[in-house]
Amino acid sequence: MNNFEGGLYLHIPFCKKACKYCNFHFTTSLAHKPNLLAALSKEIELSGKLFSTKKLQTIYFGGGTPSLLNADEINHLFEIIGENYDLSEVTEITMEANPDDLTEAYLIGLKDTPINRLSIGVQSFHADDLAWMGRVHDVRQAMECIPLAYKHGFKNLSVDLIFGYELLTNEKLKYNLDLLNNWKVKHVSAYSLTVEDKTPLLKSVKLGLDKMPDSEHAADQFIMISEFLVKNGYEHYEISNYSLPDFNAIHNGNYWKGIAYIGIGPSAHSFYDGKRYWNVANNAQYIKSIELRILPQTEEIIDEKTAYNELILTRLRTKWGVSLSDVSKIDPLYVEHFLTESHPFITSGDIILHNDIYTLSLNGKLVADHITGELFL
Question: What whole-number distance in Å separates Cα of residue 77 and Cα of residue 265?
Fold first, then answer.
């Protein structure tokens, strides 16, 4: 049996309603919530048996909407985790939360759990934006949840914003950014709107009710966000992520660094021992399989070519960048390919080379998909 050291991700697949743009695995029915939580507990136990030693560094509750769990349900899951994993070195325990769930009563209860970081899905502080997105919370709840979280001892907050959609003017975006900066939230994740398969937004675009996002509008707002946050003391440490000093997202950062993680729940992904695993994205099938004590996984062996491409995909987008030694560890023969393909982007200024570390410039981040595509094998 192998040893494990890394992160634990728990997928909580419940939402109050479907957002217009979201294609994550979720359900708006809570009918099977008790059975699902029982299956999560059992999968934690089953996964723990795969390793002789298993030491966690981070724990992340994602979804879906994990803030639909109450404090007792969260604490029960932590009891199961503690019985099956070594928690002695865990530093960051994040829970994604919606503003409407972060009431005073909920935060008081949450303070009695091990959660020490909240990732809040605000997306916008404008009523028309929230209505268009199909968000369940309103502006009042968006404005109140951050001060309330501070009041009840949650200092390590991350807030999500979406940009690049037609309704969001630069003036409205500046208002959103000013609020976060005035509150000095520790971490900001800013995502450009994309039209994904199997979403209400895609259907709306096909019917002509919405337009595809304008790439120039999105690029202008990306630069605006980066310049504003960097000017105000935030580090732009990954394409979509900014933090005040010492508040990079450790769990997500480990994904980009290639550190192992275990995913629990329907549709959750895992990565360890040179393989990737993903659970079935169907709640009923997931529960049935776990009840039979069978992990409902598909697996993929990561060969050297895939490992190289994933290094480029995940590391180049971060402040940690890619080094020639990183490439050589996968296969020394890949170094020449990397040098050849990266040279034009160094010349254009899209890739910055400093102390043998290749990173993207701000303009390079704008065209990251193109650059990584050219560097891929």
Answer: 12
Nearest to 186 by CA among 158, 145, 151, 146: 158
- The total number of residues written for the chain in this structure: 377
Phi-psi region of 229 (alpha: psi -120 to 50; beta: other; left: phi over 0): alpha
Predicted confidence (pLDDT) at residue 329 exceeds the cutoff of 80 = yes
- Rounded to whole angstroms, how far apart are CA atoms 168 and 164? 7
Q: Distance between CA atoms of 163 and 165, rounded to whole angstroms? A: 6
The pairing of beta strand 269-272 with beta strand 275-279: antiparallel
Q: What angle do CA 11, 13, 14 make, to 5 degrees?
A: 135
pLDDT in tens, 227-237: 999 999 999 99
Integer Cα distance of 349 and 21 in angstroms? 33
CA distance 373 to 377: 9
Q: Which of 25-34, 242-251, 330-339 has the lowest mean pLDDT?
A: 25-34
> Which of 51, 38, 37, 40 is closest to 86 using CA atoms?
51
In the chain, how long is the greatest CA-to-CA distance? 59
Question: Residue 252 in contact with residue 241, Cβ under 8 Å?
Answer: yes
User: What is the Cα–Cα distance from 230 to 328, expressed in whole angstroms?
Assistant: 33
Tell me how many degrees the CA angle 316-276-193 measures, rounded to the nearest 5. 50
Residue 63's Cβ-count burial label (10 Å; 0-12, 13-18, 19+) is buried
pTM tops 0.90, yes or no: yes
